[in-house]
Design brief:
alpha/beta; Rossmann fold; six-stranded parallel sheet; 13 strands; about 45% helix
């Protein structure tokens, strides 16, 4: 055989072996919530699905056009992007997110309800979204619906229009309401609410607070929030010749939930096969840094500190008194500081500090000279810190940030500070402790090793389970029978009632028998006494 032909055939064989051999599915994906951090997980999912040969139609607030995903990707862009933070700040009476530290659970849930309904309706109104809702052809158009589990539940109605299974993803990882969605029990005695700063080992009063807040959220969702989502389904889908279940019922028919979580960054709790942890799927191998950042870190003789408060909390809004504290502390240190700061013309910037409006966070954390990560405690950022084994100084503001940093403190690789309580000495001492106490780096290296140790990487795991649902046209075999029980059956109240009634009935019978026996004995004694008196 001609050597060139042989080499050509061999090359084709090798390519056939390494190229993914999956039949392309048609996937309708809805990620309408306009939160940049939320979209990072969803973006990773979409990229992997297209790379694996699937056709994806995405309804999104953020364009993926710069990625050049090719002809298998169709984008329906929500325009303009809904400025939900403007509404949130107005409702909360806050000028910026630095003032959110005083918001209680009830206020935060009310805020989520308002922004969830508003952003969902904004997306449903879009002309191209209306075309998908009102399409004449709905049979064999799509094979799967992908959605996000975060205040967008009205879009679950699309699965009934196109008669397709649903895979959802949770950017916040495990959420308390998932126990009702999957027919299992999530005990409040050791499963902390996602918005509370508690570990899985709570004191009595922490369990009281956890129970109250978890019950409050369950009741709020059931009787306040879900009726509003049902109204959206009626308003935007009700004209169709289809009977739509209540949103709370549609939630219970998910095939799989992809959870942005992975041990040990979440505490052990009851789960079910359809709840799949894929935490860290947004993290890719590090790329080369911009030249100025690379040089700045390479020359950091005493190490460097990376400071970012995420995509929603902007350092430029920091109150002047606190900004001065940070600048003074950084000026006093030997380490260099990379700071994501939205105003690059900041005055009185110390020579050891570099500020940029945007920084490639994961790539920076991968640099060996980065010694400490100052963070607000968002889940994606803390995952990146753990992935690259960088100890953290946290300042939580809202949502799951308190819980994330509580776990980080518990595992000994972070220090958490209340922003309002920060002083020069508090900040300086915390950074010194993280830099000079080797236990923090040792602890995070151990946790990082566990986080990396998994049978498949997070993106491959997500793709596997999405394709699993497509192959089997759903996953009803993973559905817990608990979803079909009445609430009193689910919590065994009927069995408990039966057992208690049986015990009470048995006790009543025993007491009745004793009373009867005593009466008989008493009656017999009296008869004997009467006979005795008659003989006398």
């Amino acid at each position: 055989m001609n050597s060139k032909i042989f080499l050509g055939l061999l090359s084709l064989a090798i390519l056939a072996a390494i190229i993914p051999t999956t039949n392309g599915a048609r996937i309708l994906s809805v990620y309408s919530f306009p939160g940049k951090s939320h979209f990072m997980m969803q973006k990773a999912i979409i990229k992997e699905l297209v790379r694996n040969g699937h056709q994806v139609t995405l309804i999104t607030a953020f364009s993926l056009a710069p990625l050049n995903l090719g002809s298998n990707y169709t984008e329906i862009l929500i325009e303009p992007v809904y400025d939900f933070w403007k509404d949130v700040k107005e409702d909360a009476g806050a000028r910026n997110i630095f003032e959110f530290t005083t918001m209680d659970m009830a206020g935060f849930l009310q805020m989520l309800q308002v922004l969830g309904v508003a952003t969902t309706e904004h997306a449903l109104k879009q002309p191209k979204v209306q075309e998908i809702i009102n399409a004449k052809q709905t049979e064999n158009v799509y094979d799967l619906l992908l959605v996000e589990q975060f205040y967008q539940e009205a879009f679950l109605a699309l699965s009934h229009i196109y008669k397709i299974p649903v895979v959802s993803s949770s950017t916040l990882g495990y959420q308390n309401q998932m126990s009702q969605m999957f027919g299992i029990i999530s005990p409040w005695s050791f499963v902390p609410h996602g918005f509370l700063p508690f570990s899985d080992r709570m004191s009595f009063w922490e369990r009281v607070q956890n129970t109250y807040n978890s019950l409050y959220e369950d009741l709020h969702r059931e009787y306040v929030y879900f009726p509003l989502m049902d109204d959206l389904v009626t308003k935007y889908f009700g004209h169709l010749p289809i009977s739509f279940p209540k949103v709370t019922e549609m939630e219970k028919n998910l095939s799989v939930m992809l959870l942005n979580s992975f041990a040990p960054l979440t505490s052990p709790r009851p789960t079910i096969d359809g709840m799949v942890p894929v935490g860290g799927m947004h993290i890719y191998p590090p790329k080369a840094l911009p030249a100025d950042m690379q040089k700045f870190l390479d020359e950091a003789e005493h190490g460097a500190i990376y400071f970012s408060l995420g995509s929603n909390v902007e350092s430029k809004d920091m109150p002047p008194a606190y900004l001065k504290i940070f600048l003074d502390v950084f000026r006093s240190m030997k380490q260099r500081v990379l700071w994501k700061f939205e105003n690059e013309s900041i005055i009185n910037l110390p020579p050891n500090v570099m500020v940029k409006k945007w920084m490639p966070q994961s790539d920076i954390l991968a640099h060996p000279n980065v010694r400490v990560f100052i963070t607000h405690g968002g889940l994606l950022g803390t995952q990146e810190g753990v992935y690259h084994a960088v100890p953290m100084l946290g300042m939580p503001f809202y949502c799951d940030q308190h819980l994330n940093l509580k776990k980080a403190e518990l595992y000994g690789y972070a220090i958490s500070l209340h922003f309002q309580s920060i002083t020069y000495d508090v900040l300086r001492n915390a950074l010194t402790e993280l830099l000079e106490n080797p236990s923090y780096r040792a602890n995070i290296k151990r946790i990082s090793s566990i986080f990396h140790d998994r049978p498949l990487n997070a993106r491959d795991t997500a793709v596997y389970w999405i394709e699993y649902v497509i192959r089997h046209k759903g996953a009803s075999h993973l559905r817990a029978a608990g979803l079909d029980l009445k609430w009193y059956q689910f919590y065994l109240l009927d069995v408990i009632t039966f057992v208690v009634a049986g015990i009470l009935l048995t006790l009543w019978l025993l007491i009745s028998l004793v009373r009867f026996a005593l009466r008989r004995l008493g009656k017999g004694s009296k008869q004997k006494e009467v006979k005795k008196q008659k003989r006398q």
